[in-house]
Design brief:
This protein is mainly alpha-helical and about 110 residues long. It is globular and about 40 Å long. The protein is built from 6 helices and no strands. α1 crosses α3 and α2 crosses α3. It has one domain: 434 Repressor (Amino-terminal Domain) (Orthogonal Bundle), CATH 1.10.260.
C-alpha cells in the first residue's frame, strides 16, 4: 500500500479550498444531526441560547458558530465536537482535538454570529 505523505506547507488557495469544503459540510452536519434528533431550528436554537436566524446561517454556511456555541451544539446534538466538525466518531466527547480548535478559530475570525 502506498502511503500518502502530508505536505509541510500549503498555498493560500489550498488552505482556502480546504476551509470551504469544511464550511459547506459543517452546515450540512448541523442540519442532518438536528433533523435526526427531530428538532426544529427554533428548538435547537433555544437549547443552545442563540437565535433561530443564527442557527439558520450556520446551517447554510453563511456564518459559523464560535467555540462556545460549537461546544453547546455538540452537547445538544449528543455528539463530540470532533464529530460535529467532521472527525471520526470514536473520539472522546470531552473536547475537540487541537486541529479542530485551530479550524474553529479560523472560522470564527472569518464570520461570527
Amino acid at each position: 500500500m502506498i502511503e500518502k505523505q502530508r505536505k509541510s506547507s500549503y498555498t493560500i488557495d489550498e488552505v482556502y479550498e480546504g476551509m470551504m469544503t469544511m464550511d459547506s459540510t459543517l452546515g450540512n452536519r448541523i442540519y442532518n444531526l438536528r433533523t435526526q434528533k427531530r428538532l426544529t431550528q427554533d428548538q435547537l436554537a433555544e437549547k443552545i441560547g442563540v437565535s433561530r436566524q443564527a442557527l439558520s446561517k450556520w446551517e447554510r454556511g453563511e456564518a459559523y458558530p464560535d467555540y462556545y456555541n460549537t461546544t453547546a451544539l455538540a452537547k445538544a446534538l449528543d455528539v463530540s465536537v470532533d464529530e460535529l466538525m467532521g472527525e471520526q466518531k470514536d473520539t472522546p466527547k470531552d473536547g475537540p482535538s487541537r486541529r479542530i480548535r485551530i479550524e474553529i478559530r479560523k472560522l470564527h475570525q472569518k464570520t461570527v454570529i
